[in-house]
Write a structure and sequence with these properties.
Elements: E1 3-6, E2 14-16, E3 20-22, E4 32-34, E5 47-54, H1 65-79, E6 86-89, E7 95-98, E8 104-111, H2 115-118, H3 129-132, E9 148-154, E10 160-167, H4 173-187, E11 238-244, H5 246-253, H6 265-281, E12 288-296, E13 314-315, E14 318-322, H7 323-328, H8 331-343, H9 347-359, E15 370-375, E16 393-396, E17 403-410, E18 416-424, H10 426-441
Parallel strand pairs: 8-9, 12-15, 15-17
Antiparallel strand pairs: 1-11, 2-8, 3-8, 4-7, 5-10, 5-16, 6-7, 9-10, 11-18, 12-13, 12-14, 17-18
Helix pairs in contact: 1-4, 6-8, 6-10
Length: 453
């Protein structure tokens, strides 16, 4: 089946220096900038962790990654100075960046382990992640706190870990990569970033007057008063990452009829996981469940975003179905629903989302019975090069309760595949792994799955 790695697989210790602020290397404008209505939604008011692992490079002998990155960061912040500011709220909770130049938090650290010792544990849910990205007390608030926290940890015998925590309202994965590549450019001695940053958040603001023109299942109000629709206690979740290599992907594709037509690996894997996850929760067959797919508008025809725009530029349309149909129908059914969600993406859909934010007071996305997934396989985390070469792994550090990420990964056997981190309650995780094994190995379940609710 798809292999999993527990966050308890390895233990090591890290020695950290006191956190410090890295400020722009030159004076920057003192101004207030509004976020867009796509940035400014309740569902993005959280911190997202990212981690990258770099091997030793003999050509960089004598150079300290901490010093190189810290100096490059200050230079990059001259161009991306809003990241050195702090978020404030205006009328109707409108988010704005006060460009104070206070800087981002930076931590220097050393770990008593090697990259080789970590092995496959570098995939999401990495052991001792809290040591590789220390949560500085008081730094994680959405308003008035540093917008970025970075920790660079040296490993024994060379190599290092670059970990980052980002206030998601400021940017998305492609926007973050643009900023990290600017740091990379400065680390390599360039005097300016290869891509000029563009703010222009007004491009994704609501219309005047705003009008909702599309059906948005991802923001639908759902009552879960009985706490029966995939309810989860954030303090009692099991974290696992699942690796899907060529064998597992081939087995899933073999279950599909030729009439379905072309399917991406992402569509196949997400349909499989959504179905297994719903079965594992033993949801009432008549309950409505939904799948939300994060879709970025960069590079798509019909959108007017200029190169260099680094704000949030995605929406997450949803497909809905009754749980009983998803659980009992063939995998093909779930794939068609995933495709349907992706097909909703359009310029009008994005405008409708921005208008919805203004009309309905920036609501949170639907939580009961929902599963959100972001495909970051082509974003380029692993390609960020500070001078030591590409990362052996780069991407999201962990999943959230109803949000997973699909990322590239090469396991210790040298197999190229996809890794997907998932959080579930303990009993549900056990059922999920059982169901996933059945789907990827064609093993019939040897015991019934009864409701945990």
């Amino acid at each position: 089946m798809a292999s999993s790695v527990s966050s308890a697989a390895l233990v090591f210790s890290v020695k950290r220096c006191d956190p410090e602020f890295v400020r722009p290397a030159k004076p920057t404008p003192r101004e207030v900038k509004q976020l867009s209505d796509i940035d400014d939604q309740e569902g993005l008011r959280f911190q997202i962790p990212v981690i990258m692992f770099y091997p030793s490079n003999p050509l960089m002998k004598g150079k300290d990654p901490v010093k190189v990155i810290r100096e490059a960061l200050g230079k990059a912040l001259v161009y991306y100075y809003p990241f050195a500011g702090r978020l404030i709220e205006g009328e109707n909770r409108k988010l704005m960046v006060d460009c104070t130049g206070e800087g981002v938090l930076f931590i220097e650290a050393d770990a008593d382990t090697t990259l080789e010792n970590l092995g496959d544990a570098i995939q999401p849910m990495c052991p001792c992640f809290e040591e590789l990205l220390y949560d500085v007390p008081g730094s994680g608030e959405i308003l008035g706190s540093p917008l970025i926290l970075i920790q660079v940890t040296r490993l024994r015998y060379g190599g290092f870990v670059f970990a980052l925590r980002l206030n998601h309202t400021m940017t998305d994965a492609p926007g973050l990569i643009q900023f990290l590549n600017a740091i990379s450019d400065m680390a390599k001695g360039l005097s300016a970033s290869s891509i000029s940053p563009i703010w222009q958040r007004e491009l994704l603001n609501a219309r005047n007057p705003p009008v909702i023109t599309r059906m948005h299942y991802e923001y639908e109000e759902v009552n879960n008063t009985n706490k029966t629709l995939m309810a989860m206690d954030e303090n009692n979740l099991v974290h696992r990452s699942f690796f899907f290599g060529p064998k597992e992907i081939r087995e899933l594709r073999n279950q599909l009829p030729s009439s379905l037509g072309p399917c991406s690996t992402f569509e196949v894997l997400m349909a499989c996981i959504w179905k297994c996850r719903t079965i594992a929760f033993a949801v009432d067959p008549n309950e409505v469940v939904r799948f939300s797919c994060l879709i970025n508008m960069r590079g798509k025809s019909g959108f007017d975003l200029p190169p260099g725009y680094y704000g949030n530029a995605f929406v997450y349309p949803a497909s809905i179905t009754k749980a009983g149909m998803l659980c009992t129908y063939p995998l093909e059914y779930a794939i068609r629903l995933v495709k349907k969600a992706k097909a909703e993406m359009s310029k009008e859909y994005v405008k409708s989302v921005a208008d919805l934010m203004v009309i309905k007071g920036r609501p949170l996305f639907t939580q009961p019975g929902n599963y959100l997934v972001s495909d970051v396989t082509h974003v380029g985390f692993e390609d960020v090069d500070f001078g030591w070469g590409k990362a052996v792994y780069g991407g999201a550090a962990r999943a959230l309760s109803i949000l997973s990420f699909c990322m590239r990964f090469k396991n210790r056997k040298g197999e190229e595949g996809k890794v997907i981190p998932i959080c579930l309650p303990p009993l549900v995780m056990e059922r999920f792994e059982h169901e996933l094994k059945r789907m990827t190995n064609k093993v019939k379940p040897n015991r019934p799955i009864t409701s945990m609710l």
